[in-house]
């Protein structure tokens, strides 16, 4: 059962871009246990960013693609949709972000495309990890309050591909140092280190703080999905400990998001990191399912998704009171580290 910490009021904040500490995404480890909860999909992503045209096989061979869309609350959220295989996967992914475009009849309930209707992708040039995207003039037809989130959706959609780490923007071939409507700085190039869905609590010292990215739960009808949010924490706090503590503290009071982690969950010992694997030892409160005997898939995936945003963390091992064999709510035993999934929030058809 989901233990929702919902509060009724939700205030949308308009804030400036703040740089994150460097984030990393490790490759899938073949020996790591891969738990498959309803909203996480472990699939092979064998597409290449090479190719000279955007042709689709006559048999319409399909593949899965992670697209960052707006949910009903205005969050930028990954949704993994089935699209035709293409040689130009980066360009195709952005085309599926356009309103009234090919994504229209595929949108999950409560979700909408992020780019203005009529926007065309004139081209994408990838050099040394930086993708320069050339948009048509229709790209400028968006509301000022959506500017930051549009930039985040573009950046996070493109950086799902291993060959892209940074994103630059052009409009009809002209380099953009700021966004065209509200002047949000692009700072040369954007990356996942610049954050997504910013959250700020009272009393946060911007100068003496750093950013971490957390995954909480959202809901549309009977479907749950993972939502990344970026939050500022004390500059001197250990990244791993800060991430776990912020996950336990849950979403901000004004947020419609929620968590399955109980507030009395604690780490019993310091996290152990070795060769890409992070080991965490919790108290029994982390076992919130099946009358306190099993760990929720939502808890596990929130931990894995959040912690693998940190540089060098490729998989997460969970212990309870030093015990490495833990029961999952599904009845499976969790005895191996869990890797970060390639795609998140796979849409059911």
UniProtKB/TrEMBL annotation:
One matching Pfam family: Germane
Lineage, opening ranks: Bacteria, Bacillati, Bacillota, Bacilli, Bacillales
InterPro entries: GerMN (IPR019606)
Membrane spanning stretches: none
Domain (GerMN): residue spans on this chain: 90-180, 240-329
Source domain of life: Bacteria
Protein name, per record: GerMN domain-containing protein
